[in-house]
Amino acid sequence: MGHIPVYTTEQDAKFTKGMADASDLVQINIYSIFDSIFSSVDSSVKSVIQRADGVKSNIAGGKQVRIGESGWSSSGNTGPCPLSLANELAFAQKLKCAATAAGYEYFYFEAKDALWKQGASESEKSFGIFNSGYTAKFDLGLLNTC
Predict the structure, then answer these.
(1) What CATH code is carried by the domain that includes residue 29?
(2) Is 111 inside a domain boundary?
(3) How many domains does the chain have?
(4) Name one GO cellular component term (predicted).
(5) What percent of the chain has pLDDT over 90?
(6) Whole-model pTM above 0.90?
(7) CA–CA distance, 111 with 137 (Å, rounded to integer)
(8) How confident is the model at residue 2 (pLDDT cuts 50, 70, 90)?
């Protein structure tokens, strides 16, 4: 059957050297949408890449680092980061380009809005690139250019 890669996923700030040592790859979740300071979507994307770079150089021990989750909500409130459909699209586009340029595989969070999350905030329910009825919230073709 061959080797089956083993790994775990954790927020970048909580991923430890011991976790990296026990894994075949390092997978981290990074949400700059929750940062306490916001200046632009560009700086939020830069924060994701810088944080991944920090894990790569300080924790990963030469193992592949993959961004397991990152995304931007289209509505609600998380503090200083303005949540809107325009910023969700901008973040998705810029993250794709920046992650590719930096050599990171990533998973965008998330496919569709999660209205089923009872008791969750509006922002927590609105990360999808599709609405809850599976209609794209923006032209997905826009994600193909850098």
Answers:
(1) 3.20.20.80
(2) yes
(3) 1
(4) plasma membrane
(5) 90
(6) yes
(7) 11
(8) confident
